[in-house]
Known about the structure:
Blueprint: H1 12-29, H2 31-50, H3 54-84, H4 90-123
Helix pairs in contact: 2-3, 2-4, 3-4
Amino acid sequence: MIPGQKENHPTFRRSFLFAAQGFRTAVRTERNIKVMLAGGALAIALGVACGVDLLGWAAIVVCCGAVISAELLNTAIETVVDLVSPEFHPLAGRAKDIAAAAVWVLSIAAAVVGALVYARALLG
Length: 124
């Protein structure tokens, strides 16, 4: 469905406002988002300090965006799991653990990419 096409569907602009509201809520309430944003800021500062080239900046931006997006998705999954299963259930725990593992794997990959980008900038 195209945004704004039905009476009760938000306009395209309003959809962006909802997204911004979701981001603000996550930053305000979730510790891990703050950690990821701090890591992104550190990656940018290191990039400036190391004199990273254009391709390196592209890799840094994509990795930071991917990790932050994955953490936002993980937060959304955990929120939905908590909604549908307020009591502990092994499957609910498994779903949350697997979603967190996805962020962990992506974070490791991003760290490796970062190490390669910074090494290339410093040694090349």
